[in-house]
Task: structure prediction
Amino acid sequence: MSEKVYNLFLLKRPTERWLRLAPAEQNALLKQINEGLAAAGGRRVVGCNAYWCNEGYRGFGVEEFPDFAAWRGFADLREKLAWYSYLDTWSILGTWHEAVDPAEVVAPEPGRIYQLFLLRHHAEGYEQLPQAEKDALWAQVGEAMPDAKWIVAANCYWASEEYQAFGVQMRADLDAVQRSHARQLQFNWPRYVRARIMLGTLWEA
Result:
């Protein structure tokens, strides 16, 4: 696989092993992870705190790698460091979603709200619509989120039977998110998709 690979991760919580480390040991381990990410040619596209909007997850983020071999090298480093024993996480791989033009992507900005979505599948009601009605429905979705800007969008159907796609969008603020959901309810958007959504704010450096 020669195209870019994206790793979406959801952080549930640090483990007791992590919490028992001294701050200097935590920083040293994080330094190894960050240096390994850079050495693999990868970068962290976005990283967000989500503890303020739910109790199940502390945060989420997406990493980008130039190809699968680069991702595998970074994954091998994490295995060597037993990274899995320090954090309780969930992750999934993806490749760029053809429906989103990379030219539309923007860099994350402080002070914004970030909306993660994980698409399980389109519901039966959506699948039964003629293509013209599907197109009209997606146009309504776009009109309901005039402020939304793409940070990343990926297909992950090839890596999972549970999820089809994931992405992160930058929103102006919480009021914008609430207005969007209110407008989506007007055309019954939840009838047509099965997805998970999570909100976050940027990690502080």
